[in-house]
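User: I'm putting together notes for a lab meeting next week and I want to include a structural view of one of the chains we've been expressing. I don't have a solved structure, so I'd like a prediction I can at least talk through. The sequence is below, exactly as it appears in our construct file.
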Amino acid sequence: MTDQDKLIAAIEGQLRRDADTIALHHLRRLIYQDGRDDLCFHFEDLTVDCTRQPLTQNILQRLLTLAETKSLADFIRAMFAGKAINLSENRPVSHCRLRTPDYRQSQAYQKLTHFAADVRANQSIKSIVNLGIGGSNLGPAMVTAGLAGFHDGPAVHYIGNVDPHALYDILAQCNPRSTLFIITSKTFTTSETLVNAKLAKGWLQQNGVAPDAAMVAVTAYQKRAVDWGIDPARIFDFDEGVGGRYSLWSAVGLSVMIAIGSTAFNQLLKGAHAMDNHFETAPFASNIPVIMGLLRVWHRSYLGCMAYGIMPYDQRLARLPAWVQQLEMESNGKSVTRHGKPLDRPAGPLIWGEVGVNSQHSFFQWLHHSVDIVPIDILIARKPVNLLDDAAWQASHKTLAINAVAQAEALAVGVEHADAPHRHFPGNRPSLMVSWEATTPYALGRLLALYEHITIVSGFVWDVNSFDQWGVELGKKMAHDLASKSDLDGFSPAAKAFLNRLDD
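Assistant: Thanks for the context. Below is the predicted structure for the 504-residue chain, given as structure tokens.
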């Protein structure tokens, strides 16, 4: 064991003792202690309130020391320098480069903006259908919904599911002569996406529309798209070093750019870039992604919380929990280290959530009353955007914000009812409140980059590779083998029987 390993082991041992000690201190007492304001962190108009966490300054300092001892700063520098930190695929991690001013001046980005502007100016195009799956679908779909107040382009639909009903129902709303399809696949071999693309091509042909005039592609493998039938001039490239769940900033965001325009899309990138700069340069003690990433580790590895909730109090951010779910669980749901050795403890919590206030009337009962304790992030903009400048609308948003704060307080403090156990709520349920002024493109870009960096920080501290997804690739391979019937020897009798019934 090296001296560094011994030091890490000592810090981890102290953190385990800290976890035992903090369990003796109820949040209803902790939140009123002097100095808790020091657990509120600020960047621009973004505030992260950690005062309702089972946390003290001493514990936070030990978590920061753990990150420093594990050389997190070197890892961050290596990522921004373009080093091949994705070890299993020997690739750099390039998504942050897509938010830089230099990239926004690049030929590739200008090609995107010119195409998006042409589509927006073309009065004959009324509908955009993005065909993708995973990050090629979820990211842009989430952003388009999140920025609905800035959507002034044609209607945009997102299809990720290979279930034909999904595409059928969307096409029923579209006119083949006024619809543009964007086929989004990094490898251009993604079976689900290509199945949907084939159906879309057939729909166009059946209605007398030439597919090459109504389809474009976003891919890292242009030749495959050309071979499939896409005009080379209508293919938009993105780097192999950009993983799907980190890709909405790239040409994968073309549908978003068409929906909101290049000016608003630039603001989205600028917000993300601002968070990148903060992450890269701020001292760890005030570095919001580092602190939030370490809290993931604190809850999962030391407090024994298997799950973590994401609760946006913003209807337009209803898809944010699903996006964070893919981001964190695909990135950090691993059982081996970056170097291929078995992990000695679990990494990556189960991420779930729903939009507030709806969730208060569904599963918040469980959050308040269950034996299990699940920490949550509560996300709320302090002001609405693009609503009527009317007192009633503003008051409605204030009601929403009050509900968010009330839940955070209730989870922490609880309610004593010794004579009515069904009305006794133990409290001591941690939450973290993330707030900002208003959900503009800039603010949303900054928020999404924050959660990307939370994922990267926690993954590094757990020593997992947050940039590969071999479990996803396994499912793809097995589906391909079943579809091609190339080799069924490894499948169970039940699988073979089901497959045979499909052909009856």
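A couple of points you could mention at the meeting. The longest strand covers residues 179-184. The chain has three domains: 3-86+273-462, 100-260, 470-502.

User: Perfect, that's what I needed.
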